[in-house]
Structure formats: C-alpha cells, structure tokens
C-alpha cells in the first residue's frame, strides 16, 4: 500500500512536470511509446520515460508484467516442473568481496534454550535486484520519475521508489537466458575464431563487452524467441571466471583499481532492444552492463533512473545453463520475490526458474 508521505507533497511540482501527458505519444502494439519518442517529457534526462505510468509510479517496466503476460508465461514455460535456483550463496564472496562491499556478517547466539542469529550485510554483496532509489542520473541527480537525493537520504524517512513496492507482486514472468559464455566457447571451436572470443575476460570490461549482435547471435544459436514482457538474463561467464580464480587472484584484481567487468554494451541499438522487449534485465556479472561504460551514459542511469527497469546482478546461472542445455530450452517461468523492507535500495532475489 502506498500512503502519501509529507515529503511527496514537496516533490509534487517536479513530478507533475515529469508527466508527459501534454505531449501525445502514440503507443505501439505492446502499449509502450516507441523508443524514438524518448525522453517522453521535454527537458527530461536522456532516454527517460518518466510519467509513462503516472507521476507517482514506482513499478516502471514491471508494469509490463500484467496478469495476462504472467499467465501466458506459466502456460508456455512450465512443462517439466524442474526447478533451478538462481541465488548465489549470501556469503559466496568470503570475508572480503571483489566488489568492495565487505562481507556477510552472520552471528548465531544462544537466546535462552534456543538460538537466534543476526545478519549484517551490504545488499549488493550477492545476487540482488537494484531498486529505483539506488542509482540516479548522475549529472542531474534525479532518480526514477524525478525523485531527488533528499527523498532517499533526507529527513522524514521517505520510502519513495523503495523495493518494498515490488514485493507486493514480485518479479514474475517468462525468463530468457542468453548463454553468451557457452556460445563464446562454441565460437572457439571454429576453424578461425575471432580473436576477441579468445581474449574475452569477464574481469576486463574494456575489451569484453557483449554487443546486441552477440545477444542476437546467441538467441539464434539457442533457438530462443524473445517476447514482450520477458525477463532477460545474460550469462557472461563472470561466475565461471570467479570460480576459476584463486582467492589471491580475486583480491589482487579488487585491489588493482576500479571494478572492471564484462557485460552488455551501452549502445543505442542495445537500449532500443531492451526498451522494446523486457520487464527486467539481469546477469551473472556485478553490473549487468560492461564496466567501465564505453559510451557517454551508463545503463544504470537509463534503466533504473529513466525507465524504472530492475537490474539484477551477480545471479548464479551455472545450474540454470546446465538445465537449459539438458532440455534444449533457454526460456522458463521465473519467480523472484524481493524483501519487504520499506525504502530498501536493493534486495536478495529469492529466484527460481521453473521449466
Ligand atoms: C580474510 O581471511 C584471510 C584468511 O583467513 C585473512 O588472511 C584476511 O586477513 C581476512 N580478511 C579480512 C578483511 O578479514
Ligand atoms: C530516518 O530519519 C532519521 C532522522 O533524519 C535519520 O537519522 C535516519 O538515518 C533515517 N533512516 C533511514 C533508514 O534513512
Ligand atoms: C582458468 O584459469 C586458468 C589459469 O588462469 C586459465 O588458463 C583457464 O583458461 C581458465 N579456465 C576458464 C574456464 O576460464
Ligand atoms: C551522448 O552522445 C550522443 C551523441 O553525441 C548525444 O546525442 C547524447 O545526448 C549524449 N548523451 C548524454 C547523456 O550526454
């Protein structure tokens, strides 16, 4: 349930100008404005879609997960009843994380005749969804639908754009795995493979981007068709790389400077593809997108702050990739329920793929 908090009243002027109703935008057959019409509101940030679902919307592209789309996904995808978890262990990164988010604090203590425990951790540490109050348009300092810094960390404890709003219905629908890592290894078996496939290193974002052409080639190789409202899940090979490194190698990389990681490339064709198809975007890598960005914007700005599109990071896709290969099917029913913590910035994914 949403209640109008006093802080929202001070917000209203900016939210009202965020509404694009003054500009009549034609919707396509899926009920969304064409990519070419972004940003929707005059003077609004790059490619943003503020106001599409009203000035106070906090669901963003999750609005695409209509009951009809979820019901259709359950009918087309649940065939065998095989379930696969996508949750990396909460403490998988050990006592010091590669992504500089500390470690998972877990204390068990006697509480009389039984035991209790305390968890203490950064919500970015293991598999998680980023919420709409995690990442703003950096230059403009604006979050989804125009929300400001003071609404995230200011007095009054506003919970606007918090992840609890997503917990009301979860992130549920048709998941599509793009198994880039398996496809890349297949390319290496060819006679004269492109050098970039050999050099691909999930810890070198500068040279290891995944382009839209790559994504399309993987989908074609798998025989996977994308449908409107899908949840895109990309296996870049980051988990494989992480598991193949010693503790010393991981920590040496962490200490060598800013995080570098493989991921989706920030190109306009890629953004158009994401806009036209998906309700949420996730992967096994720390940031979904290639890091550092190879463009003048980050996907975090456009997806989270512009469209309200959940970004899922550090998913464990190893068992999922195995099952998809076994069933020769890279689509499945996905259910993910975020935690109900009002105002939270991210959440564990509690995700299951059901084939
Ligand atoms: C993590 O554990 C290793 C091995 O026990 C230890 O040498 C290191 O100091 C620990 N690091 C932190 C940050 O606690
Ligand atoms: C809530 O507001 C108080 C007072 O401004 C502040 O000290 C506290 O950190 C806020 N809590 C959260 C979770 O932001
Ligand atoms: C694992 O690491 C070794 C040594 O760095 C490397 O030669 C090998 O190619 C890696 N394997 C995979 C699957 O990444
Ligand atoms: C990025 O560059 C393109 C092309 O020069 C430009 O149209 C766009 O406005 C720029 N975006 C940002 C966020 O600066």
TrEMBL record:
Keywords: Signal. GO terms for molecular function: arylformamidase activity. Residues 1-18 form the signal peptide. It comes from the Eukaryota. It holds the Pfam family Cyclase. GO terms for biological process: L-tryptophan catabolic process to kynurenine. PANTHER family: CYCLASE, PTHR34861. Belongs to the Cyclase 1 superfamily. This is Cyclase.
């Amino acid at each position: 349930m949403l209640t109008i908090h006093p802080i929202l009243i001070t917000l209203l002027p900016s939210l009202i100008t965020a509404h694009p109703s003054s500009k009549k935008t034609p919707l396509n057959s899926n009920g969304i404005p064409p990519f070419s019409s972004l940003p929707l509101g005059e003077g609004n940030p790059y490619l943003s879609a503020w106001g599409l679902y009203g000035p106070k919307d906090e669901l963003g592209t999750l609005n695409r997960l209509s009951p009809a789309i979820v019901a259709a996904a359950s009918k087309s995808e649940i065939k065998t009843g095989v379930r696969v978890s996508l949750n990396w262990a909460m403490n998988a990164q050990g006592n010091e994380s590669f992504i500089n988010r500390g470690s998972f604090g877990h204390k068990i203590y006697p509480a009389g005749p039984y035991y209790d425990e305390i968890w203490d951790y950064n919500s970015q540490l293991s598999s998680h969804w980023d919420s709409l109050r995690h990442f703003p348009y950096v230059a403009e300092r604006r979050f989804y639908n125009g929300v400001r810094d003071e609404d995230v960390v200011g007095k009054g404890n506003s919970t606007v754009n918090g992840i609890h709003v997503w917990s009301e219905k979860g992130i549920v629908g048709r998941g599509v795995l793009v198994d880039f890592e398996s496809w890349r290894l297949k390319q290496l078996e060819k006679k004269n493979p492109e050098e970039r496939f050999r050099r691909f290193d999930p810890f070198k974002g500068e040279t290891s981007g995944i382009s839209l052409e790559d994504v399309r080639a993987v989908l074609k190789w798998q025989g996977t068709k994308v449908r409107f409202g899908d949840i895109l899940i990309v296996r870049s090979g980051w988990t494989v790389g992480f598991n193949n490194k010693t503790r010393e190698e991981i920590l040496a990389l962490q200490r060598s400077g800013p995080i570098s990681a493989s991921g989706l490339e920030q190109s306009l064709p890629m953004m158009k593809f994401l806009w036209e198809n998906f309700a949420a975007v996730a992967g096994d890598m720390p940031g979904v997108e290639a890091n550092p960005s190879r463009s003048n914007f980050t996907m975090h700005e456009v997806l989270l702050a512009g469209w309200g599109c959940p970004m899922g990071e550090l998913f464990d896709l190893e068992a999922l990739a195995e099952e998809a290969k076994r069933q020769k099917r890279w689509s499945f029913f996905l259910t993910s329920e975020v935690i109900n913590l009002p105002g939270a910035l991210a959440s564990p994914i509690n995700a299951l793929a059901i084939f």
